[in-house]
Write a structure and sequence with these properties.
With about 425 residues, this protein is of the alpha+beta class. The protein is built from 10 helices and 6 strands, in the order αβααβααβααβαββαα. The chain has a single domain, classed as Outer membrane efflux proteins (OEP) (Up-down Bundle).
Length: about 425
């Protein structure tokens, strides 16, 4: 009796603590909206895409010029530099050719403003690097899309788990009411001499068991609610209440297959394309590059002045003929990475098909299990009704009533668990076959 009272007190305290928390009613569509707006995984994926987009923008250097501007100030007595500075400033006179002045010039100040431009013309490896960067960027966009699909599926599952948790609490609260009613009936029968003390103790044990199960169910309810908060990136961790109950989903499941247009599979294909482009880029690195260049220069002996000016332009064909076999090794590595990516893509598609076949079998199993558990629930409910009536008339053993009562509560929990499994199997199939 003391243990039973202690458990009852602890259960009441837990109930008070749960009820003290703020309870918020929420729909599944509201959860989906908040997850799409606030979920951290989506934001991380978006930043990955932004990084890939920035890498792609860097490859614009294959087409666009590189322009720099500089202003240099110097003072020198170096004979060559002094003579060249005067020449650039266009102030050279005949007296400057005096050997004494040439060998030991006075300090010369020179201020040079220079504008330089470098324009790539032919850069084959850069073209393929740009192609690889674009494929990577597109793959990251598809990865973000698949993460959003996965989180939508995860919301579906988490919301059903919350519904299931509330169902479990309802079932066990009803079972607790029935157990307490049986206990009162047993106590009265004991006073009247119809039952023995051992029978009453069995009823009390049943009450204690239901209390423990109900306490665990309420903890599971909080866990399911907190997981929804995590998905929505909500740190308030209130207790959520679903607007609708857990029922069998009427969604039609068709015999579908894995589509290669599914976002994650397409992302794998694009990743393989990126490795292929990088492999070609490393091969193209053996070819020469053609770049144009030009500059415009202003010189003076006063800062930020430009009385003298000049320009130059031209083109350069450069060819790194040998880099100590470094490029050969890099080319071999990129080719191996490309071959590996093709194998990974093939393996990923095969694994996805394997997962789909498992999901189809799981759905069929859940469908059959739902039918059987529905029938078992009806049978256990009728059995409990009969035994309860007989117990009230003193025609049924206490142990048989407790077995029937326990079985009915268990079948109710199993039935709702099967509904969850059935709906989950449907949602998972839709997730796997989504294009």
């Amino acid at each position: 009796m003391k243990i039973s009272h202690l458990l009852m007190i602890s259960f009441l305290l837990l109930g008070i603590l749960i009820n003290a928390q703020e309870s918020v009613t929420i729909t599944k569509s509201e959860v989906l909206t908040k997850v799409s707006e606030n979920n951290t995984s989506i934001k991380i994926s978006e930043e990955d895409f932004n990084q890939a987009k920035a890498d792609f923008r860097q490859t614009n250097a294959v087409f666009l010029p590189n322009i720099t501007a500089s202003h240099t100030a110097l003072a020198t007595t170096n004979p060559l530099m002094a003579f060249g500075s005067k020449l650039n400033q266009e102030i050279l006179t005949a007296s400057d050719f005096n050997p004494a002045l040439l060998n030991d010039p006075s300090q010369i100040e020179n201020y040079a403003t220079k504008f330089e431009i470098q324009q790539p013309l032919i850069n084959m490896d850069g073209m393929f690097q740009r192609k690889a960067a674009k494929s990577k960027m597109e793959a990251m966009a598809l990865k973000t899309e698949r993460i959003q699909d996965y989180l939508a599926f995860e919301v579906e599952k988490a919301y059903m788990q919350l519904q299931l948790a509330y169902k479990a609490v309802d079932v066990l609260e009803t079972a607790l009411e029935a157990a307490n009613a049986n206990k009162r009936l047993a106590d009265n029968s004991l006073k009247q001499g119809y039952l023995q003390r051992a029978d009453v103790l069995n009823v009390e044990v049943r009450v204690t068991e239901v209390l423990n199960q109900l306490q665990s169910a309420k903890s599971n309810l909080q866990n399911a609610s907190n997981y929804l908060s995590f998905l929505m990136n909500d740190d308030t961790y209130v207790v959520y209440t679903p607007t609708d109950e857990l029922v069998v989903s009427a969604t039609t499941v068709e015999d579908q297959s894995i589509s290669k247009n599914r976002s994650d599979i397409k992302a794998m294909q694009l990743a393989s394309n990126a490795y292929e482009a990088m492999s070609k880029a490393d091969k193209m690195a053996f070819l020469p590059r053609l770049n144009a260049f030009g500059s415009y220069e202003l010189y003076d002996d006063q800062i930020f002045q430009g009385d003298a000016n000049g320009y130059l332009f031209g083109a350069q064909l450069s060819w790194d003929i040998f880099q100590g076999s470094k490029r050969f090794g890099k080319s071999q590595k990129s080719k191996s990475e490309f071959e590996k990516s093709k194998l990974e893509y093939k393996q990923y598609v095969s694994q996805s098909n394997l997962e789909l076949n498992k999901a189809k079998r799981a759905f069929i199993d859940a469908e059959n299990k739902l039918k059987l558990n529905s029938l078992a629930l009806e049978q256990s409910e009728e059995s409990l009704r009969i035994r309860t009536n007989r117990f009230k008339e003193g025609l049924e053993k206490t142990s048989d009533l407790l077995i029937a009562e326990t079985q009915f509560a268990q079948k109710q929990l199993e039935y709702y668990q099967t509904i969850f499994e059935y709906n989950y199997a449907q949602a998972y199939l839709q997730f796997l076959t989504k294009e």
